[in-house]
Amino acid sequence: MYSILGGSNALASSSKMTIPARRVLAAASSRAQKRSFSSTAPAREPSNARNLQTQTQTHIPPRPDPIFPCVDAHSARATRVQHRRPPFLPAAHIPPAAATSQGKTVSELSASEPGAGPEPAYSFPTGYETYHHSEPFELSYSTIPLPAFDLAYETWGTLNADKSNAILLHTGLSASSHAASTAKNSAEGWWEAFIGPGKPIDTSKYFVICTNVLGGCYGSTGPSSHDPSSPNGDPYATRFPVLSIFDMVRAQFHLLDYLGIDKLYASVGCSMGGMQSLAAGWLEPDRVQRIVSISGTARSSPGSIAMRFAQRSVLMADPNWNRGFYYHGQPPHTGMKLARQIATITYRSGPEWELRFGRKLRDIPLSVSSADGNPNLEGRTPTGARVPALCPDFLIETYLDHQGESFCLKYDANSLIYISKAMDLFDMTEEALADLPFQSRPRAAEEHQTHGRQRQPLSLSPPAAYLPSLAKGLAPLRDIPTLVLGIQSDILFPVEQQREVADALRMAGNHQVVFYELGGVWGHDTFLIDVANVGGAIRGFLH
Amino acid sequence: MYSILGGSNALASSSKMTIPARRVLAAASSRAQKRSFSSTAPAREPSNARNLQTQTQTHIPPRPDPIFPCVDAHSARATRVQHRRPPFLPAAHIPPAAATSQGKTVSELSASEPGAGPEPAYSFPTGYETYHHSEPFELSYSTIPLPAFDLAYETWGTLNADKSNAILLHTGLSASSHAASTAKNSAEGWWEAFIGPGKPIDTSKYFVICTNVLGGCYGSTGPSSHDPSSPNGDPYATRFPVLSIFDMVRAQFHLLDYLGIDKLYASVGCSMGGMQSLAAGWLEPDRVQRIVSISGTARSSPGSIAMRFAQRSVLMADPNWNRGFYYHGQPPHTGMKLARQIATITYRSGPEWELRFGRKLRDIPLSVSSADGNPNLEGRTPTGARVPALCPDFLIETYLDHQGESFCLKYDANSLIYISKAMDLFDMTEEALADLPFQSRPRAAEEHQTHGRQRQPLSLSPPAAYLPSLAKGLAPLRDIPTLVLGIQSDILFPVEQQREVADALRMAGNHQVVFYELGGVWGHDTFLIDVANVGGAIRGFLH
Which of A52, A98, A217, B465 could form a disulfide with B138 if both were Cys (CB 3.0 to 4.6 A apart)? Predict the structure, then answer.
């Protein structure tokens, strides 16, 4: 006899099944195509808690050993990774044995993408340009400057003669410079539908620049980069300094200097890119003519810090993380998978999953074979009945599992930690800005004339206590037309924070603030998906 | 010279500091009392991205090794755990060497609770009664019954002569039977303020029973319990069968039989207890005279499954978990800590943390010494300047860290996994209920007369597609007065789900549904904290 939960041991002992169990399994088999959990159902006639116990035999055989394919996946991945180098690791850091098979990357080992669903493309950038900054670069939180840095970037469109049509595009946490396909890299970018001739950011009119942020792992200097002070040529790892969003943007201004671009037509960004977009306006108000901040914030909230803290915690607890010094060994792929699962929860919304997955179970073919020729019993009994498992079962679980698995070797764990921390540290209240070692570069014509009547706050609730300080912090942006856009289903950068940015700008005297709130169920990721509404707002604002 | 990020290595090399660094540190020291991050601030005069790079020297010394006290905490805990048994482990399962020091439990090793904040008490139950069920117990998802089970329970008040004043109280995921202090156990219970003479659940009128659920680890049979089919007397571990909420409640009805209680004055529960409360009404509509469901649901949503999946994933990825077979070794305390951090995020709300913590940093004394006599440099330079760290820094981070640390050895990891999974599986739509091997026990007088006009749905949005099926599933509860209460800031059991329960009951013909929505910032945990509003609603309904 065996449990409906049985694994391979159960199959081996199936010849010992008692009659009642056989009857159950036969009944279960007839319902095997149903997309719901089958029950033991020895008796379908009305029964209740008080009489069920009398229906069964007294001899209880041992329960079979459980199976956990979702846990096995971690060790299986570890075995695969040993033979192929993670693509974010510079070849110089790979021990010779591993480097011999560098033709393929581990990303090719990921499970295939489920067809349905609006997931953005995630591809490794190739064919980007690199700006090399050879002089020491001061940082917000470290007395030791970065001795030099690289910044990977890509461009779309043509810079016009007077260099007045440049748009600097800022990315979210883990994105590369590959926002859209180029002649050098035809792969779809993360904002493919938004950038191109005739698209919301129209490259027949604008020259668009996108960088991999400082601290990243897609061509720009970050923790995985060579530490010039290391005698062995080791990467910085966690000797890399803590960065600020302002440091990232200051590095981008050096690139603009190099490109000879004095004024930006616009600074555009979503999520962390929205923070950068505001930071650019603050650092160099005279060089930024328009700001777009979508699903960003001017002050990271404790709620969003909590979500990022949970991700960093699981990552840093992975023994492979090894205090950040994993570049000669296995990267913390399990921690990265777990962190990405958590992140994905914050990127979407419950209502989306309700519409997309509901309580549907993953599909398990009635007859599947494992490599050793035995039936794969995960989630089904040998007769095909569907039973609950502790590993992913509901489609929402397989979705999160897949998102984690797809990402866990595509990005450097230390880059994730450092950039995530930089987001936590971002705070444009006057009080916090005063602690930075650099200040806003004032305009030539300084005195600002407040004109018109005071605007009412957008929030229906009493404004946050820090709003006046935020307004003072954002004062340098008061003459820059700014588009602020938020999503009502966003749980990571809630729409209240978007109203706050708009309110603070208007309190600072900015009379050119455009503010939109979007509905829909896509949560924080709306900016990657909703071309009609997000793209339309950008197009209208940039015109 | 050294970085402002420096650890103990940094101190050792401080005599080699260059003059600019010394100047920086002196400046930083003068601001050390500020509750914000200090900057490197070599020059506080106006500067910008383009000229900062010229202010610094070209020789770049090696960066110091980073320190990670939050990671060290995991291995330190592992060392401590080796000498003291986790309290949820039955003594029989402890190897002899470890059992010698069983006088103290690891809970005593937890960090002290921060004084501020409305955290409920969490204490190990002692002095509970145990109901032993000696006959096999059929289960929802397994062909093998449980051969027997124990159910730990406590009671408050006095059962009256006709046994008509009994209230069955159902717990949340990880709570014990110790809902309030008793003569046998004077420690505060998890609902201390709600239960007692004159309190919302008035024990001068009612006889209150609370159990540790089946699957738990506080006296009831669960994965950590002895598996009678094991020749070595091992615990079930993950050979334990997957349970349903209905199984838990059916076990409770056996306890009621034993106590001679035929009818419940009320079935009351919050969170998972709300699920159980509804399940009790469905299983035995004739035995349940009133239902209270607070922050529960009649159908787990994919959003809440996602949150619980993330917790189970980090727990099962802990190597100590060992597929659930850890009872002879170290429990997965790191995975438990990480899981609890995630859980805590879902129990509260961003607005609460904004009010409670804002962006405040943890307090680090200017002069603290480590065990070896060296200054503790975590978070401060030797001169006292406050710098960002990758380990917990903001109060919200230390709060989550502390919640995880306090919990990680107080509860059995397998119990968490099984009960969390049972919550995911809970679904009272007609379609899902049809798959259970037991059905609702119909009332004697079956035909229900629908009277009065059709109620309008409480939701402002179009109702979910499954609402009619939920109404059919809840039909057996149509004659039971039911209190449904939800919290607008709850992200785990959103208020929409509470409206759904109320709507489905009313669609089923229940004309005695009381529905409240509460504001406030406490999120899901409101039921533990808000005595005035939650307690008041219960008192008014039970009267």
Answer: A52
